[in-house]
Write a structure and sequence with these properties.
heterodimer, A: mainly alpha, 4 helices, 57% helix, B: mainly alpha
């Protein structure tokens, strides 16, 4: 997170131009999910929204938040991953 | 599933299958990072992909490496909340309903789904609004991680 905040301070943090940032935020998101009070019985919607919130807090701390892709738009894909793809291999 | 949604061209689907194979077609985790870095180098030099398409696959490669390290650490740290779900069939698993397979293979399965999630997120982000392509890849990749690992808890 320290690296990301530094980049933000320098106005450099655009994830479309920072290929390693998704990996850092991905791991932070997974870590945050494990700290949810209802873990491991969290809902996917909770974890998804937590990811957007975390991303906003890192990229736009104290400023205008950007709106993410609504959960309803990705719910089908995530559910399919949760229910089906794990047994595919 | 992305193919059905019209998000993925046949060429991108072949790259996704290549990435999936790079992650999953293995007998252990030896050389994992090198294999993924080779994949990323090939994407960078691929002249058939647009910048945003490259972004999606490079992000997926990077998330795969970082995710593998995350899940491997979690599987070896008894204090990590994900630890119980990541134990292998040879141990006294504290959660009897978890999926039985060697923990390195669980890591590989989760990382494979991370990668699919990143690609999905990037493509959805790109479809919604190109400036949030990277953000979509990040968050939906995390959501895919959560979904796949949640499945291991049964």
């Amino acid at each position: 997170m320290h690296l990301l905040l530094k980049l933000k301070t320098k106005g450099m943090l655009n994830l479309n131009f920072c290929h390693i940032a998704p990996a850092i935020i991905h791991n932070l998101s997974v870590d945050k999910i494990s700290l949810l009070p209802n873990f491991p019985d969290y809902s996917l919607e909770t974890s998804y929204n937590l990811g957007w919130e975390l991303l906003n807090n890192i990229i736009n701390p104290g400023t205008t938040q950007f709106s993410g892709i609504p959960y309803s738009s990705v719910q089908g894909y995530l559910s399919e991953i949760e229910n089906g793809m794990i047994s595919e291999d | 599933m992305m193919d059905n949604a019209g998000l993925l061209s046949s060429y991108m689907l072949s790259i996704l299958q290549q990435l999936n194979g790079t992650i999953k077609n293995r007998e252990n985790l030896d050389g994992f990072d090198d294999d993924l870095n080779s994949f990323i180098e090939n994407i960078i030099s691929d002249t058939n992909l647009t910048y945003l398409e490259k972004l999606v696959f490079i992000s997926a490669g990077n998330v795969s490496i970082a995710g593998k390290n995350y899940w491997l650490n979690a599987s070896n740290d008894p204090n990590n909340p994900w630890y119980p779900a990541l134990q292998d069939e040879m141990t006294n698993d504290p959660l009897p309903n978890t999926i039985k397979m060697p923990k390195w293979l669980k890591v590989v399965c989760i990382v494979g789904i991370d990668a699919v999630g990143v690609v999905l997120g990037g493509l959805l982000g790109s479809a919604f609004n190109p400036p949030i392509t990277g953000q979509g890849a990040t968050v939906i990749g995390g959501g895919a991680s959560a979904a796949s690992t949640k499945a291991f808890f049964g």
